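Input sequence (114 aa), recorded before submission:
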Amino acid sequence: MSKVFITQENKNNFSSAKSYGDISFIVSSDFNVHQADSDNNIKTINRIKRLADMYNPKEDYIIPTGDPIIIGIVFFKLLSKHGVINCLKYDRQTKDYNLVKIDYDILKHLKSIV
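Predicted structure, token format:
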């Protein structure tokens, strides 16, 4: 069954994402930029590494929410390992999620446009 990985646990209501799969939170706390080698940061990085091993780009999804540093690390790790992320972006008007496919090969070509 498909999984929906949410980058950081918070008080938002993610119930409409359940239609995409079972919901799982990656982390619950922020990344400490002042102590990069703290125990909490090491645990966070290890969780993200495990996520990258479990993530199946053919059927799983990511909802980016919370700490931008954690979102960046998750996206970097998944794109490095799989090349594709199925990102669910919340639409406040429809109160539902829209799929945004992020493909590393397409992103590589964007730098020539900018």
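Checked by second reader. Residues 39-54 form the longest helix (16 residues).
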